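Homework help thread (please don't just give me the answer)

Our assignment gives two proteins as sequence + structure token strings and asks us to describe the second one. The first is just a warm-up. Here they are:
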Amino acid sequence: MINWKLSLGTGLLAACCFSSGAFAAGHVKDVEAISQVYGDGEKLASVQLRYDSTLLGSSVSAADYAVPGRTVTRAFVSAEPYGKPAETGKYVQVELEPLPLSDQMADPHPEDKHKAPVGVGGPQLGSHGNPQPLVPVAASISQKGMVKTTEGRIYGGEPEMKSTHTRQLLIEKFTQHTFTDKDGKTLPYNLYVPENLEKGKTYPLVLFMHDAGTVSPEVKATLSQGRGAVAWAEPEWQKEHPCFVLAPQYDTVIVDDNYQYGPELDRTIHLVESLTSQYPIDTERIYNTGQSMGCMTSIAMDVKYPHFFGASYLVAGKWDPKVTAPLADQNIWVVAAAGDPGAKPAMDTIMAQLDAAGDKVSRGTIAQDAPEAQVDQLAAKMIQPGVHAYYLLYQGGSHRSTWQHAYDVTPAKEWIFGQKKGV
């Protein structure tokens, strides 16, 4: 392909300049931004271009396109929207290198004060936080190189183009609903239903609860803030572990540093119970997880409703160690960071109490910036027969950086899915 384009510059290029339509701009008829949810939120992941004619796949490369402030890692022709590489097609998929995770320590956030062991400085129960409107993901892209159609025409020189719409290919798979409890109070929520449900079969359900910084009236806020909800709905996970994913959206702070909780805790349990009567959900394999406020709520649920859940994945949270004895015979996997002055001391104490009660806790420690593969190796080694309490600690890190990584620890997630209520 490089030789073909160089040859144009030495003679064929000049000849083509006089042919009708050669090198004229305006051949891109549609520009679509495609987002993805990373550990620190929803961002632009790729751009799809639709041309007015069918292109040769061999004429397209990453070097042909530029996106301001981003690195293009791959560009290829596809015959269908969001398709795979093809020899010919009207669509070009331009993939981008992910941005570095944002420095959470330097980014002001309502939960940065959520540090004291008890009742000092954290978000107040029932408060509405500081909700921000969801910012649409958009793209700018230009075509710098030349591409060729199946008819032999040369397209080049497309100036910077703006996306006219955005696709959230994973978020779009969730539907939005409102649950009305027995007291007449409501709770908005997002629900992912696994594809191709088999008649007579039941499926696990994962309940994800967001942090206080995501308190918002925007029902989809919990889906875009990080990977706590969407990680369980990704095609790769669903292929091996089809499941329902439930992500309520809270518009108030539902627990506080005094270890008090609001009526939303019971309301969420009632929501789960309601869904089990509507969908083929395996009630032995309902799992809860959450980060920070959501983690605290998960622990509070495990204390108040022991054995309601098959297992709990507890990320960057804390609770009163004086009341957490019911965790002793439940399946839990805790993830915290050494740099989290709230979660680490509390979880250290809770896990030590489990040890003292005769429950063996399997522990593992790894650097916050360790490659994902190394974290997976450690997590896999931690898993032992008969052990139902695990504690993965990141060295360094911060309160919020914990959940940038926790929902990509595949062995931990697979262990969660291997557990059942009361077992």
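The one we have to describe:
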Amino acid sequence: MLNILCGDKMRVAVIGTGYVGLVVGTCLADLGNNIICVDIDKEKIEKLNKGICPIYEPGLPELIEKNLKARRLEFTTDLAKAVKNSYVIYIAVGTPQAKNGRADLRYVRQAAEQIGKAMEGEKVIVNKSTVPVGTADMVKRIIAKHYKGEFHVVSNPEFLREGSAVNDFLKPDRIVVGYESPKAKKVMQQLYKPIKARKFYTDVKSAELIKYASNAFLATKISFINEIAMLCDKVGANVKDVAVGVGLDKRINPHFLRAGCGWGGSCFPKDITALIHICLLYTSPSPRD
């Protein structure tokens, strides 16, 4: 069964057609896989099936149109059908910041429950959403309530940047996969085989933490060079030259060493706040809200 499902054209469902899910599903289709993207927004799905892209991302509309015509890509609101007709199932739903600062996992929970209720046979479930440590275990518990057969949960964090997401997926710095079973690793190796990049395979919890740690480190570099910029103003130094000189050290590199208004955007603030809550949860004498 595994060899049949993991041939040249793997059947994959992607739950969520937001920024991440739409890019991931379309690019996987362009690699030759048969992809079913799922969303609850009926109007969005109707537009996508007509080739109308709901977001601005260079190169994405052309890939959607190309793979729709090749019948490697389709969009649906029927999650159960997508799950039953796929072997690999990506969870790519939003994880917004909750009022207390933690990552809101309600949509991940809902997706896991619906997957569990729809499953018929062995599946590999891939967490693509940015999620705290322990989310894969939570997904396993939820699915196991509804499905008693064999399945595997993988953590595969995304590193897409707005404006270059298609290129970031097809030509990434690295692909990180956290797995438990050798079978799941084999499936992910086959799925990402066409992409020429370093693949790093690790345990699930380490993979879950890598995304948060990466974003926190990049934010730290931005904050650091801004502090140095203020010092440069005081002493009469040129922060651009200081950044170049520091960035020439290969251990540091010049990326994210440009002084400016500070970090922000849709990911850094919520991910760093979520990381703080993870640290409090696992390092404090008692868990905090």
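TA reply:
I won't write it for you, but here's a hint about the kind of observation we're looking for: The longest helix spans residues 204-235.
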